Amino acid sequence: MSARLEELAYSETPRGTISLRRRREPTLDVDVYEVKLDEEFLMSSLFTVAEIELARLGLAQTVSAELDIVVGGLGLGYTARAALEDSRVRSMIVVDAMAEVIDWHERALLPGAQELVSDPRARLVMADFFAMAASDDGFDPGAADRRFDAVLLDIDHTPRHVLHPDHAAFYSLDGLRRLAGHLKPGGVFALWSDDPPDDDFDALLAQVFDFSKAHVVTFANFLTGGESANTVYVAR
Prior knowledge:
With 236 residues, the protein is of the alpha/beta class. 24% of the residues lie in helices and 37% in strands.
């Protein structure tokens, strides 16, 4: 590795080879943290605006004075840390299927990781978010059928472009209804997507929830010299 690129962690998993690396981006003079699964880039600390907005937009629609929430997908931790900035959050379960990703945070290999894992409100759970969503028991391994004020999800690229074929059922009418069953009355589901708003998926949300909206989140992209955008769906 060159001085500008350092591999921080590398593991062979049933899903493929996952690696965490840090590189220097000379254009911005910043360290960039990137995650790759085999040859596919899963996430980068270069563009995190929408991951943070996932937490802010989702929690803004909650109605309770105290919030119990679930974050699906730990990743680089931006959504989880942004959620903890909301003082109403009293408990947060972060579900990730990759033991390696949880280990990176517990070993403080990522900026802000120590702050996240040491927060008494946060609990990192290694599990399959989609299997939990489809089950009767739900997201808390210690309390079957526990309900939550919000579920914030950032795992797949989009509802149509999933990381594993098993995830596709979640984005169906039945899958969303099962997810809604794990929410308290007035509970919120929020989802990050890399694509523009999908009218078909928005129509599914409208069949399950009383309110839904697709937010287009824009951010500066120094690679293109213009703006890029992600979508955050919020349903209550």
